[in-house]
C-alpha cells in the first residue's frame, strides 16, 4: 500500500511537469545564453470569475455528454432503473453562487457521497481522535465493499469512506434509539445542504432488501467490537442515509460548506468546527475514490467523494465545490462522466491542492 501511494505521488509530479513547461509567461534569469526558467503552474489565490466558471461548467457538460462508457450500479436493483443518459454538472462557490448545466435538478441517491458528511458530524461531536481510534483513517486500497480489509487492518479496521467505516461512523452517532440516530444523521445532511432532503424510498427498499454484503460487514465489525451500536439498526440507518435524494446543486452546497471552512455559504449556518474541516478533506483525499484514490489524487489533486448513485463531489478548499452526476460507473464504482467533467474543470482552473500557492 505504501508503495502504491508513493507511486501515486510520483505520477502526480510527472503529470505536472508538462503543465509547468508550457503554461504562463516565463521569466529570463539573465544572460543571452540562459535558458528561460520554466514558469510554474500556480494555483489561483482567489476565486475565478463567475463568467469563467459558467463557461467551464457548460463546456464540461457539452464535452462529455456523449461519452457512453460505464454501467449503472445493478447490485442495488433500483439504481439500474435510473436513466443512464442523465448528466448534471454544478459548481457552488463559497460566495453562494450556483452554476449548473444539464440535469442538475434531478434528485439522485447520495449513496457514499453521504459518508464524509456523517464522518464530519461524528468528528465534530466526538473529536477527530475518537474517529481515528475507533474507526481508522487509513486508505484500504481495496473496493468500497471489501470484507478482507476488515480482516487485514484489524487494529484500525477501515476508514469512514468505505462501507465498513461508514457503518462504524453511523454506529458512533450518539443516539438513544434508532429513530434518534436517523434524525441526527438526516439533520446533519440537511444542515450541509441548507435544505430539507427526502429519502428515495424505492432506493431504500431495494437496497435494504438486498443488503446481504453490508449486513455481513456490520456483523463482522460487531464481532470485533468495532461497531458501536446494534448491527441491524446501524445497517438500516446507514442504508437510509445512502438513499437520501440530492440534486447536483444541493450536493454542491454540501461540498461548498466544506470549502467554506464549515459554514454553509447559502444558509450562513456553521455546520462544522473549522478545525475539523481539514481532517475531513484529508480523508476524502486519501480514500474518497476507494482503490482509485491514488490515481484521482495524481490526476486531479482535490479531496472528493464518489457514490454508486453516480454523484461525485470535489472540494476546492477556500473556493468552491464541483459536482458531477451521471449514473454509469466504472469498475471501481465511480461515475465516468462525472469524473471527466470534474477533472476538466479542476485542471482548467489549476485547482490541485498540490500546486504552489
Ligand atoms: N449504499 C451503497 C452500499 O453500501 C454505497 C456504496 C457506494 O456508493 N460506493 O453499497
Distinctive features:
357 residues; alpha+beta; Beta-lactamase; 5-stranded antiparallel beta sheet; 3-stranded antiparallel beta sheet; 14 helices; 45% helix; 9% strand; disordered N terminus; binds glutamine
User: Which CATH-level-2 architecture of the largest domain?
Assistant: 3-Layer(aba) Sandwich
- Stretches where pLDDT is under 50 for at least 5 consecutive residues are 1-36
Characterize the largest beta sheet: strand count, sense, and whether it forms a barrel. Answer: 5 strands, antiparallel
Name of the CATH first level of the largest domain: Alpha Beta
Tell me the series of helices and strands, N- to C-terminal. Answer: HHEEEHHHHHEHHHEHHHEEEH
Rounded to the nearest angstrom, the radius of gyration is: 20 Å
What portion of residues is helical? 40-55%
Mean pLDDT: 89
Strand content: 5-15%
Helical stretch tally:
14
Q: Please provide the count of β strands.
A: 8
For the largest sheet, list the strands in their spatial order. Answer: 2-1-8-7-6
The tally of structural domains comes to 2
- Measured between the Cα atoms of the first and last residue, the distance is 29 Å
Question: What do we call the CATH topology of the largest domain?
Answer: Beta-lactamase
Structural class: alpha+beta
Which ions, cofactors or small ligands are bound in this entry? Answer: glutamine
CATH homologous superfamily heading of the largest domain = DD-peptidase/beta-lactamase superfamily
Net shape: globular
Description:
This protein is α+β, with helices and mostly antiparallel strands and 357 residues long. It folds into 2 domains: 1-41, no CATH class; 42-348, Beta-lactamase. It is built from 14 helices and 8 strands. It has helices at 2-22, 50-64, 115-126, 128-134, 148-152, 163-172, 178-193, 201-208, 212-223, 231-242, 248-259, 277-287, 293-299, 336-348; strands at 88-93, 98-102, 108-109, 198-199, 244-246, 304-306, 311-316, 320-325. It has a 5-stranded antiparallel sheet, with helices on both faces. The protein has a 3-stranded antiparallel sheet with strand order 3-5-4. The longest helix is centred in the first third of the chain and has 21 residues, at 2-22. The site of glutamine has 11 residues, from loops. Glutamine is lined by residues 111-112, 144-145, 163, 207, 214, 242, 307-308, 333.
